[in-house]
Amino acid sequence: MTALPHTSSYYAASAKPFELQAQLTESIEADVCIIGAGYTGLSSAIHLLESGLSVVVLEAARIGFGASGRNGGQIVNSFSRDIDSIERTVGKENARIFGEMAFEGGRIIRRLVKDYQIDCDLKDGGVFAALNSKQMHHLEDQKALWERHGHHGWLELMDNNGIAKVVGTDVYTGGLLDKSGGHIHPLNLALGEAQAVLSLGGKMYEDSAVVDIVQGEPAVVKTAKGQVKAKYVIVAGNAYLSNLLPQLQAKSMPCGTQVITTEPLSDEVAQRLLPQDYCVEDCNYLLDYYRLSADNRLIYGGGVVYGARDPADIEAIIRPKMLKTFPELASVKIDFAWTGNFLLTLSRLPQMGRIGTNIYYSQGCSGHGVTYTHLAGKVLSEVINAHATRFDAFAQLPHYPFPGGHALRVPFSAIGAWYYSLRDKLGV
Ligand SMILES: Cc1cc2nc3c(=O)[nH]c(=O)nc-3n(C[C@H](O)[C@H](O)[C@H](O)COP(=O)(O)OP(=O)(O)OC[C@H]3O[C@@H](n4cnc5c(N)ncnc54)[C@H](O)[C@@H]3O)c2cc1C
Hints:
Elements: H1 10-13, E1 27-35, H2 39-50, E2 55-58, E3 74-75, H3 83-90, H4 92-101, H5 104-115, E4 123-130, H6 133-148, E5 155-158, H7 160-164, E6 174-183, H8 186-199, E7 203-205, E8 210-214, E9 219-223, E10 227-235, H9 246-249, E11 253-262, H10 267-273, E12 279-282, E13 289-292, E14 298-306, H11 314-325, E15 334-344, E16 351-355, E17 359-363, H12 370-395, H13 405-426
Parallel strand pairs: 1-2, 1-10, 2-7, 4-12, 10-17
Antiparallel strand pairs: 3-6, 4-6, 5-6, 8-9, 9-10, 11-14, 11-15, 12-13, 13-14, 16-17
Helix pairs in contact: 2-8, 2-12, 3-4, 5-12
Flavin-adenine dinucleotide binds next to helix 2, strand 11, strand 15 and helix 12.
């Protein structure tokens, strides 16, 4: 079989063994067919299987092939645009719901890691680093905002001296530590979640690109060599979906971002750079993000290529950023460099919705997707579950038209009522 391989990254080189799943070559049925095996698809699959529905996942390449298997690995709470921005769009009352959900994705990841014993180098603690006093004021506001939405006890503002104790550079004015942030080996998280899907009885097919969705009840999801008839479909292809559903493509734009990984650093150097092993992202609009791997490499990402054209020389773009933050790494070798695509929306807020009655989608987390995608999987499973059980229980009851139509329904009903009450009186 010739499934498109994982991009050549540090993650692919250190991935846990995972047996290649077969290509779909037959016609099968399921309650739910999920298109795409990134975190959105995998989290949806696990939550749906846990609730008792049958699930088939179709992946065009390999499980975790997209952004989920090649990202910075940073567990960042909230959304790409924060809750205050959502509040301006949807009003205070509705924003409260987003406030409750903003910190759920990280909890879902930790729950899955624990319940399914996923070995993905999970570490706690993420730092937002300010490069100037304006960004520091923004972090003060962010702390107040998150605490207003119930995120208490996790956040700690750091001044210039404070941040120097957790990041070994002098470029920052200060920062905000979120102890409930953290980092993971992203591909091993995806593969561990895929293992969980299989252990729950879900079916997964790799090298099985969906080429058409025939809408209907059931919907028919077609690949080149097979098809899945499903009561519900979840579209989770995100930046790699291309034009399968032009209406989704029209409201989003794939963007590339690049990551480099150094050779393993000595314990002393690693300890000097990130003594608490937190992950870090700065507060620039086009931000730098970095962290240590389990084997002491520095994984450093940054830059955005709108439209997702792959840059010719990734190291030439990212290495100068890394050296600006950590000049002492000037002679360190770069072992891996890769690019990956995330999906940008105009509002920088994710898009979740439904096409027709039974095709659900979630896409466009605009850069901060590790937590949101896990939340999205749970939300999609909740709505499909309610649809598949309670809603369908009512929906299966027949809806008869009143005899006589709009004009005669009142007199006909009155005659019927008179007839039945006469029978009551006569005791027949
Ligand atoms: C380099 C990089 C660094 C990042 N760093 C971070 C970070 O540190 N923290 C953070 O929060 N976010 C980060 N992100 C964003 C985050 O990784 C994504 O938002 C998230 O992983 C998206 O998950 P997903 O499941 O929606 O999509 P993806 O992981 O992209 O998965 C989509 C899958 O669908 C498949 N697919 C597409 N079309 C079809 C089809 N027709 N048929 C079948 N399968 C199909 C693809 O092959 C792919 O495997 C980063 C993104 C990139 C690219």
